[in-house]
Specification:
The chain is of the alpha+beta class and 150 residues long. Helix content is 23%, strand content 33%. The protein folds into two domains: 77 residues, no CATH class; 52 residues, 2,3-Dihydroxybiphenyl 1,2-Dioxygenase, domain 1.
Length: 150
């Protein structure tokens, strides 16, 4: 019997407002926002969803409670941002059980420039860390989800 193919990975992020968070992470990771307009139009025409299931952003239909971004060549995991009704990190301070590390090999100067770029996108610098020669900056995205830039 042949071994099964390993699964692809999608990272799902529960959040209060999926569309701005998807835009932030698409810009942070140099990913592309997914455009579901044509799919949504087909689902509306088929009666599978209603306009209440959608919103309009920039003249294009989007799913009201979800947004996604992905690497243009498919080499990184897809990120799915989904609205949840319960409190999120932006409303309740809790420790992340899982976070993303953005590794850059260019060194300290590049890391500082990247941190500045992410702050301009809406991130917050939380603290600097070091373990031996490894240095990183812990940050929070616009909804308070922690991530590190190394």
């Amino acid at each position: 019997m042949n071994s099964p193919q390993p699964p692809t990975i999608q990272i799902a992020v529960d959040c209060a407002d999926p569309h701005p968070l998807a835009r932030f992470w698409a810009a942070a990771l140099h990913y592309e926002l997914e455009d579901h307009h044509d799919q949504i139009e087909q689902l509306l025409a088929a009666g599978a969803i209603t306009t209440d299931d959608t919103i309009e952003i920039g003249g294009r239909r989007a799913f009201a409670v979800a947004a996604a971004c992905r690497h243009a060549q498919g080499s990184g995991p897809r990120l799915l941002f989904q609205h949840v009704p319960e409190a999120t990190r932006s409303e309740v301070r809790v420790k992340n059980p899982l976070h993303l590390d953005l590794h850059h090999l260019e060194g300290d100067e590049f890391r500082e420039a990247e941190v500045a770029r992410l702050i301009e996108l809406g991130a917050t610098r939380l603290w600097d860390g070091q373990q031996g020669p490894q240095r990183w900056v812990t940050m929070a995205d616009p909804e308070g989800n922690e991530f590190c830039v190394a």
